Amino acid sequence: MNKGNCEHREAILDAAVKLLLSKGYKNMTMEEVANNANLGKGTTYLYFESKEDLAICCIQKLVQKLHEKMRLIAKSSLNPAEKLHKMVSARVFFRFEQAKAIHAGSLDDIFESVRKKLFLKREQIHEVERRLLAEVLVEGRTLGYFEFDDAFETALAFVTATNSLLPYNLNSHELGDRTDVEVRFESVFSLLSKGIAAKHDPLQKPVRKN
Predict the structure, then answer these.
(1) Which CATH number applies to 50-204: 3.40.50.720, 3.40.50.620, 1.10.357.10, 1.50.10.10?
(2) Is the pTM of this model over 0.70?
(3) How many Cα neighbours within 13 Å face the side chain of 79?
(4) Bridge partner list, 146
(5) Phi, psi (5° rounding) for residue 176?
């Protein structure tokens, strides 16, 4: 895909995201998307075969921002325990805030229309998140913060346990207040983190060699 094509695709996605937030999925049309992207309606179908396909790509675009945020946390100067908490929290609350921002009632409309297609993409998305968490878990084990056998399986536990808090497993009414979700998140995270916490203070023990 050449530079011009990439720019057209990004312009369409940006326009669609703004319309989803302001008008909702059902009220958004491909013609409006094209107009807001300063392109012809036919051009949108060169990149996205349907409104459903476009909506999924919008979700993926937002998820890419989440993954970049998780990578930045992983590369930060925080200790591994702090990184793990912030990364797992980010995967829940980044989505929560995006879902809250979407036009009232539109969240259910989107997932009703694209749930089957999104389910196939969801596993790929979660795979990225598991690997990012696994890298920090390995770092934490090396530095003496965590004790566990398999990093990927441990990362899977954190992902699976917090998936029930994600927007596509809730309807718009069940999203509730952020404070309520935070309480539930901290409860789940605390149970999981206690299960892998090292039995010693990592700051008082030499770094463990692999």
Answers:
(1) 1.10.357.10
(2) yes
(3) 10
(4) 197
(5) 65, -160
